[in-house]
């Protein structure tokens, strides 16, 4: 089972691309270090306060994949510098 989550996020305090990248890098590195997932910025590369993050995992069953993705999303939700606005799931 392949689980993919796409989430659009807002970074309110970023006033430059450099500040946005610092927040994004912090979140992405923490997710990669803690969980068995792949993470990448997918869209809005040139906007300061908006981004779209993709997170993917592969597991033998949907329940385990869903758990991994939920834990990764908790890192985003637990960071006060970034807010998750819209999240969509895909299963293959």
In short:
With 92 residues, the protein is of the alpha+beta class. It is built from 2 helices and 4 strands.
Task: Explain what this protein looks like in three dimensions.
The chain is an alpha+beta fold. The protein has a single domain, classed as Alpha-Beta Plaits. The chain is 37% helix and 36% strand. It is built from two helices and four strands. The protein has helices at 17-34, 62-77; strands at residues 2-10, 38-43, 50-58, 83-91. It has a four-stranded antiparallel beta sheet, covered by helices on one side. β2 and β3 (50-58) form a beta hairpin. The mean pLDDT is 94. InterPro entries: DUF503, TT1725-like_sf. This is DUF503 domain-containing protein. Pfam families: DUF503.
Primary descriptors:
single chain, 92 residues, alpha+beta, Alpha-Beta Plaits, four-stranded antiparallel β-sheet, 2 helices, 4 strands, 36% strand
């Amino acid at each position: 089972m392949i689980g993919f989550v796409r989430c659009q996020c807002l970074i309110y305090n970023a006033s430059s691309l450099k500040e946005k990248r610092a927040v994004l890098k912090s979140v992405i590195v923490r997710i990669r270090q803690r969980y068995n997932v792949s993470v990448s910025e997918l869209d809005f590369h040139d906007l300061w306060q908006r981004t779209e993050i993709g997170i993917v995992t592969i597991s033998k069953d949907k329940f385990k994949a869903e758990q991994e993705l939920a834990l990764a999303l908790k890192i985003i939700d637990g960071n006060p510098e970034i807010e998750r606005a819209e999240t969509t799931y895909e299963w293959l």
